[in-house]
Amino acid sequence: MRLNNISLSGIADEAAQTLDMQIKAHQMLGWQSIELRSIQGLSIDELDEDAFNDVISLIQSHEMKVTAISSKVGNWERPITFDKETETEELKRIAERMHRLKTRYVRIMSYPNDGLEPQEWKEKVIARVQELTTLAEQEDIILLHENCAGWGGQSAAHTIELITSINSKALRVLFDIGNGITYGYDSLSFLKAVDPYVEYVHLKDSLNDGQNIHFTFPGAGESKVAECLAYLADRGYKGVISIEPHIHLIPHLGESPGNQNDLFASYISYGRETEQLVRSIMKTGVNNG
């Protein structure tokens, strides 16, 4: 579903493990866009050829559009010391499959530290993301750096330095509204600073009770979801808003989804609340297609 120039999507493994149920969740929401992270616990590049052909068949038969691939590149499991060659080959496999899925965006992060001095960590991250960006240019895909784990996710200034140091249209920003509470910054201020480079948005919400981070339904937390959406509307954002509920499935904390029915139902509820919020704030009608 599109709300004028906004396309609503979602990280589908937060609805279900199987692709058919992931698609069903989006169809129940009336959304024809989907973001892929894992299927039956495997990332897109880990699927064997037969399984991936099944993915293509399901996506095509249901006329779904894949808005992005959420990869493991540079994420919380992969410090800057993670094997470079392994990850380069992984990105090549992802790129080949992205072309077959007809999508250009792949989410990355920028490598947690692993005992290096700050300057060395910075230099190694920038050099490594530069190499990945060069590969992305060759493969005609776009890396979306998320404000999450890693050197570039520490602050808006770090993100801007990473993007401008590399200076390529193949490296843009994926802004996740809900990450500010986890990483200790104001989401709206961060968004305003990185705005020129933002091409994709994740929507989640959370609050901090002084001891723990709790993920909430959109607008119920402290992430300034409404304010960020209003800012995006005012500046004429025309991209994707993709939900990442974290209500029952929180990958970086190792929390399993538990009851699959609860997972599916909460995803639907989260999607409906998101759509209502986007409609009210962006004051826009529905444009199906």
From TrEMBL:
SUPFAM superfamilies linked to this entry: Xylose isomerase-like
A Pfam family of this chain: AP_endonuc_2
Stretch forming the signal peptide: none
Swiss-Prot/TrEMBL keywords: Isomerase
UniProt superkingdom: Bacteria
Xylose isomerase-like TIM barrel domain mapped to chain residues: 29-246
Name of the protein this chain belongs to: Sugar phosphate isomerase/epimerase
UniProt-listed InterPro entries: IolE/XylAMocC-like, Xyl_isomerase-like_sf, Xyl_isomerase-like_TIM-brl
Gene Ontology molecular function terms on file: isomerase activity
